[in-house]
Amino acid sequence: YFFFSAMSYPFIALYDDGACILRAQENSKLPMQISFIANGINVVLNLVFVWIFHFGVAGSSAATMIARAFAMIAVLYKLRSPNMKVQLRDYFSIRPEWKEIKRILHIGIPSGIENGMFQFGKLAIQSTVSLMGTAAIAALGIGLMTVVGECLGAGEKEEAVYYIKKISIAAEVVLIITCLLMFGLTYPITYFGGMEPESAKLCIFMVTCITIVKPIVWIMAFIPPYGFRAAGDVKFTMTTSMLCMWLCRVVLAMVLARVFHMGPIAVWIGMFTDWTIRAIIYTVRFRNRKWLAHQVI
C-alpha cells in the first residue's frame, strides 16, 4: 500500500501546483470539479479492484494512484490552453529560480513543521483515545492565505485586516450552523444507532460541550494564523502551535486521562485548552498588528 502511495506523490505535487496556478487566475471552480471527479474515480476503482478483481490492499492503493494521476493530467492539460493568462507548455524549459524558491520555503517550511506537529500530536493521543473506545479528531482548513497574500502584495495592509475579519465572521456563521446541526442529529443518531444508555449519555454530553466551546474560541484559534503566514509571520504561528499542541492537547490530555482517569472528557479538556490559549494569543497578535511588520517579497 505504501509503495503505490509513494508512487502517487509526484501526481499530488503536480496537481497541487497546477491547481494553485489556476486559483491564482481566479479559476477555483475547475480544481474543485477535478477533485470531485478524481474522488469518484477513486471510489469506483476501489470497488472494482477490491470486490471484483480481488486485488486486496494493492487494488485499493492502485485506485488512489490512478485517481491522483487523472487529477494531475487534467490540471496540466488545462494549463496548456492558450486562453489561460499563465500557461504551462514547454516543460523542459522550466528552470528553478532559487531566490523565489527560498522565499517560498521561508513560508512553507515553518508551516509544514506546524502542520506536521499537529498531525503527530493527534497520533500521539490516538492511543489514549482508542483506549476509551472512541475517536474524536477532526480537521478544518480555510484558504485565507491567497486573499491576504494578494492584499499585502498590492501594499493594501488595511484590506488584509479587513478580509481576515470578514472571512472569520463568515466562518463563524458556518461553524455555528454546522455545530447546531450536528447537535440536533446527536439524539436521533444515538437512539436509532442502538447505543447503550451510558455511551449515549456520554456522547451527548461531549457533543454538547463542543457545541458550546467551539463557536467561542475555534475561529480565532485557527483562522487568523492563515493570514499571519501569508504576511510572513510564520515563526510565531509555528512556535505558538507547537507549544499549545504539546503542552495542552498532548501532555495535559494524557495526564488527565491516564493519571487522573477522567476518561474521554480528558481529551476534550486538552483540546479546548489548546483552542482557548491559541485564540487568546492570536487575538492579541492580530490586534497589535505586529504580523504586518513582516515582509515576504
Quick structural gist:
This protein is mainly α and 297 residues long. The chain contains ten helices and no strands.
Account of the protein in words:
There is one protein chain. The chain is mainly α and 297 residues long. 78% of the residues lie in helices and 0% in strands. The chain is built from ten helices and no strands. The protein has helices at residues 2-24, 29-52, 57-79, 98-131, 145-153, 157-192, 197-222, 224-230, 234-259, 265-288. Helix 4 (98-131) runs parallel beside helix 9 (234-259) and helix 6 (157-192) runs antiparallel to helix 7 (197-222). The longest helix is centred in the middle third of the chain and has 36 residues, at 157-192. It is globular and about 65 Å long. The chain starts with a helix and ends in a 9-residue tail after the last helix. Residues 124-139 have low confidence and may be disordered.
